[in-house]
């Protein structure tokens, strides 16, 4: 019986991994995608207004379109978590939580996960006042008072989304100037029900079964029905650690301009990599395409 060997196993079903899948399939490489969640980070974006060709599209719609495009090329997208990858002879052995597959090349398009505040009760109130995705959970707060913590595009766009649902939104940021795109800040300033609290951090989450109040580092108490934490992301380092891949100080996988890691045959793309500070859809998809191209070149030249 012939063993089922893939040319390319893609870990991660976000924009980067799925773009790599399109290119790889069109190069006629035997390709499979494993991902532990649908849509990746883009899937949780409320509105995307900077993706060329679409004046505005929801993250979920973009991911549905992309997924259908990948499936139309006969690439399987498996909802399984990759727990281990190692090299055996000339191949990589990839273990999911349910099965094992073998591949010539691997692409890690594993993105990043949301950073937590790391204070008491954060886990206890998860889903009961504490949230990490306004698009997913904002609708629970119709006519309520919510907070968003952070100062980036993600924090500001979450505050804007919530301002259409909640009665009042407090955007709490530890510095004196937001770092979001000027267009988003302009929009924020035009919303009367959003108040920005600068130079402030949350030090305590108060409530019994659910969040009721937060304590600020100036000692003030703020009544909140919900708090959305948007303070950035951290790399999914579990697999990277196991593989002994080179990482930078931020835990991003170090790749070269062909998206190659320090282990021959393992490529990485998208938010998980060090290649650019601009962690966006356009940069993640371009890296996915570049990775697939160099996988193809290697395989064609029997490398
Ligand atoms: C709220 C928000 C709004 C945003 N808005 C915009 C915007 O308007 N425009 C823009 O250009 N960018 C936006 N971004 C940024 C953009 O979403 C990211 O840059 C992009 O999604 C990165 O894609 P990626 O494929 O590298 O990673 P991700 O989208 O994070 O995908 C990685 C995937 O890998 C999976 N994975 C990780 N580890 C494993 C494993 N071991 N096994 C299996 N699967 C695994 C994850 O579950 C995930 O599905 C936004 C981000 C956020 C958070």
Keywords:
FAD/NAD(P)-binding domain; 2 domains; binds flavin-adenine dinucleotide
Describe the protein in words.
With 303 residues, the protein is an alpha/beta fold. The protein has 2 domains: 177 residues, 3-Layer(bba) Sandwich (FAD/NAD(P)-binding domain), CATH 3.50.50; 114 residues, FAD/NAD(P)-binding domain (3-Layer(bba) Sandwich). It is built from 7 helices and 17 strands. Strands 1, 2, 3, 4, 5, 6 and 17 form a 7-stranded mixed sheet that branches. Strands 8-15-9-10-11 form a 5-stranded parallel sheet, with helices on one face. The longest helix is centred in the C-terminal third of the chain and has 20 residues. The protein is elongated, with a radius of gyration of 21 Å.
Q: Average pLDDT, to the nearest integer?
A: 94
SSE arrangement, N to C: EHEHEEEEEEHEHEHEEEEEEHEH
Shape: elongated
The proportion of residues in beta strands is: 25-35%
CA gyration radius, whole angstroms: 21 Å
Which fold name fills CATH's third level, the topology of the largest domain? FAD/NAD(P)-binding domain
- Ends apart, CA distance between termini: 25 Å
Number of DSSP strands?
17
Helix content: 25-40%
Please state the second-level CATH architecture of the largest domain.
Answer: 3-Layer(bba) Sandwich
CATH class of the largest domain, named Alpha Beta
What's the CATH H-level homologous superfamily of the largest domain? FAD/NAD(P)-binding domain
The assigned structural class equals: alpha/beta
Q: Could you describe the largest sheet, including whether it forms a barrel?
A: 7 strands, mixed
What ions, cofactors and ligands are bound?
flavin-adenine dinucleotide
- Number of domains in the coordinates? 2
């Amino acid at each position: 019986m012939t063993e089922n060997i893939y040319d390319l196993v893609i870990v991660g079903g976000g924009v980067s991994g799925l773009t790599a899948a399109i290119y790889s399939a069109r190069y006629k490489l035997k390709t499979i995608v494993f991902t532990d969640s649908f849509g990746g980070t883009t899937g949780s974006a409320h509105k995307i207004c900077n993706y060329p060709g679409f004046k505005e599209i929801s993250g979920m719609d973009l991911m549905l379109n992309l997924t259908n495009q990948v499936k139309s090329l006969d690439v399987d997208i498996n909802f399984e978590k990759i727990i281990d990858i190692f090299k055996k002879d000339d191949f990589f052995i990839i273990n999911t939580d349910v099965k094992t597959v073998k591949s010539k090349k691997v692409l890690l398009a594993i993105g990043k996960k949301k950073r937590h505040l790391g204070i008491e009760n954060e886990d206890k109130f998860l889903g009961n006042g504490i949230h990490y995705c306004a698009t997913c959970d904002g609708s629970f707060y119709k006519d309520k008072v919510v907070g968003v913590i952070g100062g980036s595009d993600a924090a500001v766009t979450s505050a804007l989304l919530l301002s259409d649902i909640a009665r009042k939104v407090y955007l709490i940021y530890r510095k004196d100037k937001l770092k979001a795109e000027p267009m988003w800040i302009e929009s924020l300033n035009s919303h009367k029900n959003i108040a920005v609290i600068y130079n402030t951090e949350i030090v305590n989450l108060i409530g019994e079964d659910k969040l009721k109040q937060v304590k600020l580092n100036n000692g003030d108490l703020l009544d909140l029905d919900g708090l959305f934490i948007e303070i950035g992301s951290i790399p999914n380092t579990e697999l990277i650690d196991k593989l002994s891949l080179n990482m930078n100080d931020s835990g991003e996988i170090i790749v070269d301009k062909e998206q190659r890691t320090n282990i021959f045959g393992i490529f990485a793309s998208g938010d998980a990599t060090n290649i650019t500070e601009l962690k966006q859809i356009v940069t993640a998809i371009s890296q996915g395409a570049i990775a697939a191209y160099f996988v193809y070149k290697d395989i064609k030249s029997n490398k």
